[in-house]
Amino acid sequence: MSKVKVARKSTRIDMTAMSDVTVLLLTFFMLTSTFVKKEPVQVTIPGSVSEIKIPDVNVLSILIDPTGKVFMSMDKQGDMINTLDSVGNHYGITFTNIEKEKFKKLSTFGVPIKSLQAFLALKGDEQDKVLANYGIPTDSIDNQFKVWVQKARVNNPAFRIAIKADAKTPYKVIKDVMTSLQDLRENRYNLITSLKNETANN
Amino acid sequence: MSEIQTNDTGGKKKGGHSKQKKISVFVDFTPMVDMNMLLITFFMLCTSLSKPQTMEISMPSNDKNLKKDDMPPVKASQAITLVLSGGDSLFYYTGVPDYKDYNSLKLSSYGADGIRAFLLKRNTEAVIKINLLKEKKAQLKISPAEYTKQVSEIKGGKNTPVVIIKAADKANYKNLIDALDEMQICNIGKYVIDKITPGELFLIKNYQTKGELSRTAANAANAANAPSN
């Protein structure tokens, strides 16, 4: 009996082409995308036909969730510290350097000033858990939101205010925020929306 | 492909033939691909490709020191007031509301068949002009800068309608954005977001009860007038 000879074939696949493709894809993703910010609450933004893009820098974004909690974020850490300082001064609270360091690393903040120090003392993942329960007070008696915006504006006059709110947010909350901004003479701001295709012709 | 052939011509030898050394270097790219794939996955999950759009709005100043002269009155024939009452419908009235007639308030809806049709009809002139401009821009007859300039001129024209958007507390953010969106679609340049007044709330209630309120008010007025006669 003769043995059946199995021809030995090399199973080596040339991965160079594959590598080329993946590197290309990677470059594409790195150049075109922006990192998603960690947000304490999920919001679904309403759609609009507006095609103006939001600026990259100097954005003071205000996040409003469906239950009316207000959060804020800034894109520069230096602004975060300066604003915290001035807001602290306003309320007579001095923040330690450790607290400031922790504060500047927050992607989004929104804690009543009284509980801010206790909040900053928490660990990172615990902060994420409790942040959704807080929110900056916007009511007329204790309008801390107004103070935050005012101090942020003083520290960085180039700020553009952008409001990002959930589609189901009651208008009452939006109105509160808008009147606060109006009181500060912040009459021009942006409303963040997602793209919707509709034209007058259809 | 990933083989590198190094041809070593080991120099010219006197008289003898030249020897060629062939070294093949095969680089295995599999780990590289693995790593790239991982990175791609990371970028796909952690980043967003599209930047969100924004709508730029400018609110009126509520400065107490503003003089009457700074606030030009709006012609009643040009004014359209949208009352966002929540849900999927909205009310509108033109000019000065007639509190006695519940039909002065019209019920409408968001979207193409509702308020948009009405606004486009009121703003036909500007819409036609802007569409012409858009065509010109598409054919590269005018520059984008010129286009924006002319559009804002048309939008600020004398006979364009002025829309006042008033939202009730029951309305939600989406309603507001939809209403603002219609302003963009219908090329309305002059619009403002204002606070709702008790008058508008009365109008809505009156509409929902089909004039019940205005009738009782009229009856009460009549009853008050009757004894004096």
What does this structure look like?
The complex is a heterodimer of chains A (202) and B (229). Chain A is 41% helix and 15% strand. Chain A is α/β, with parallel strands linked by helices and 202 residues long. The radius of gyration of chain A is 24 Å and the shape is elongated. Chain A starts with 15 loop residues before the first helix and ends in a 7-residue tail after the last strand. Helices cover 42% and strands 21% of the residues of chain B. Chain B starts with a strand and ends with a helix. Among the domains of chain B are: 3-9 and 19-45; 77-123 and 160-220, Nucleotidyltransferase, domain 5 (2-Layer Sandwich), CATH 3.30.420.270. The longest helix of chain B is centred in the N-terminal third of the chain and has 17 residues, at 30-46. In chain B, strands 7-6-5-8-9 form a 5-stranded mixed beta sheet, with helices on one face. Chain B has 7 helices and 9 strands. Strand 1 (34-35) of chain A pairs antiparallel with strand 3 (47-48) of chain B, so a sheet runs across the interface.
Looking at this protein, list some descriptive labels:
heterodimer; A: 202 residues; alpha/beta; 7 strands; 41% helix; B: 229 residues; Nucleotidyltransferase, domain 5; five-stranded mixed sheet; 7 helices; 9 strands; 21% strand; elongated
